[in-house]
Design a protein that fits this description.
The complex is a heterodimer of chains A (about 45) and B (about 250). By secondary structure, chain A is mainly beta. Chain A has no helices and 4 strands. The radius of gyration of chain A is 16 Å and the shape is elongated. The longest helix of chain B has 21 residues. Classes of the chains: A mainly beta (about 45), B alpha+beta (about 250). The interface between A and B is large, with 34 and 57 residues. Strand 3 of chain A pairs parallel with strand 1 of chain B, so a sheet runs across the interface.
Chain lengths: ~45, ~250
């Protein structure tokens, strides 16, 4: 509990058209989330 | 009256009376910890001014919390979680520069050595739930891509259980996997939309939550451990913004 931090809330978007390109074969509807991770070098801590 | 080596106990000097009795040759960190604990515990008791019955109720609660613990159930960690102590300890021990991904607690359902998958693989092995594509980049704090970073992911299935909670019902390693970033620091995999689930609420901690008017549900989330050579690994979650009633209604869980 209490794990929810503002910076960790992600926008899960619903997709209403079949996927193309890299995700081809995935039928609509489906969800998609883009999420980047930022790591610190050990010396930065 | 004979003089004593230590202060005699009074309501006013209760902290000094207790802490002065620690030996001179003890672990200094233990001395610091116990001194602070006694000071704050006595301050709480002086503010609350509990009746004897209330004190016994507290002792009984702690007794039942201990009795609830066994090799797979740790009610004290649950108590630490619901009081916010677990997340506070995690925050203190993982202070990071602004912009770096924030740490969260590991939780009890992580299993090491999950299957390694190629980019784009689907970690949902039971076919339940709404399909989800997760993708993005792993970067350093200067924005440079990190190649060969490992993204270790795990989550519940659409029934709100981890695979290890449903041995024989869910396929082994359902909704777990490890992915590797490419030369641009990019990763991508398929899964299903996570859902909320309740913490174990059949013990004294769950009953306390009920008496406090608090629900036992954790917000829907996906767990990650992201690591790379030369970088501090981050243990974290992401939480869906949309349609997540627990985030909408009670943001703290």
């Amino acid at each position: 509990m209490f794990g929810v931090k503002e910076s960790l809330i992600a926008d899960f978007r619903t997709q209403q058209e079949d996927a193309v390109g890299e995700d081809e074969g995935l039928k609509a509807p489906y969800w998609q989330v883009d999420w980047d991770f930022v790591l610190t070098k050990r010396a930065e801590i | 009256m004979a003089a004593t080596k230590y202060p005699l106990f009074t309501e006013e000097n209760s902290v000094e009376a207790v802490n002065a009795r620690m030996g001179g040759d003890i672990d200094p960190r233990l001395r610091e910890i116990m001194s602070v604990l006694v000071r704050h515990l006595h301050a709480a008791v002086k503010e609350i001014e509990p009746t004897h019955e209330e004190w016994l109720t507290a002792i009984d609660f702690l007794t039942r919390t201990g009795q609830m613990c066994n090799e797979w159930r740790q009610e004290y960690i649950l108590l630490s979680d619901v009081l916010g102590v677990s997340m506070l300890v995690d925050a203190i021990n993982h202070r990071r520069p602004s912009g770096a991904t924030e740490n969260t607690i590991l939780g009890p359902f992580y299993v090491p050595e999950a299957p390694r998958y190629a980019r784009g693989a689907n970690i949902c092995l039971d076919g339940k739930g709404e399909p989800l594509v997760v993708g993005g980049f792993v970067r350093d704090t200067a924005g440079n891509p990190i190649e060969h970073a490992l993204i270790d992911v795990w989550q519940t299935n659409d029934d709100g259980f981890y695979d290890v909670q449903q041995k024989g019902t869910q396929p082994d390693w359902n909704l777990r996997g490890v992915f590797t970033t490419d030369g641009e620091g990019s990763y991508r995999f398929r899964s299903v939309k996570p859902r909320y689930y309740p913490i174990p609420d059949d013990g004294p901690v769950g009953k306390l939550l009920g008496r406090l008017g608090r629900h036992p549900n954790r917000a829907a989330h996906i767990h990650f451990i992201v690591s790379a050579e030369g970088y501090d690994p981050v243990v974290t979650h992401i939480f869906p913004l949309i349609a997540n009633i627990w985030i909408r209604m009670r943001c703290s869980e």
